[in-house]
Amino acid sequence: KNEVEQSPQNLTAQEGEFITINCSYSVGISALHWLQQHPGGGIVSLFMLSSGKKKHGRLIATINIQEKHSSLHITASHPRDSAVYICAVSGNNDMRFGAGTRLTVKP
Amino acid sequence: DAGVIQSPRHEVTEMGQEVTLRCKPISGHNSLFWYRQTMMRGLELLIYFNNNVPIDDSGMPEDRFSAKMPNASFSTLKIQPSEPRDSAVYFCASSLGVAGLYEQYFGPGTRLTVT
User: What are phi and psi of A79, to 5 degrees?
Assistant: First the structure.
């Protein structure tokens, strides 16, 4: 079993829909990261969180430390949100990654 | 700031050749990470430097891989000899502090193809 599990693997949505991507982990962590990788390949850090909830524009990330679970929400999705979203967890000296969720938002 | 700079962006080489990938972290960042991304294994941490010192190299696949950080503004990842299974995208990232406590900034990656 992978230490970081994401679901779903693939997600197709219509423009405007509310989207949720889930991440569960089985190891102790210092922080959880949500990354976005666009078709061109570049990786951008969206959020780093160790408790509670963070919001940036239409993106919201939550984490439940007791349940070892995090969610990434996208409100009012847009075709430009189409990308691979990767969950990663970090300890003091390492980073472990989920397999990613490929999101396609259709106009 | 220009962000994390990696070179080359693309590298095609023949099996057995030496490959050197280069990274310039964001000025002022004291942690640097090398990652490898493949279709089969996704993203993997290869090695992590803090203040130019390798802290964790447990992800380095084998002795053919080596990484150095001679100063705060430059790091190299070397593969010698290269093999076709080394084909991947190699990312460098930097952050203000230790892994796990600071946001990481990724370079554009180097796409390596070994034929």
Answer: -55, -30
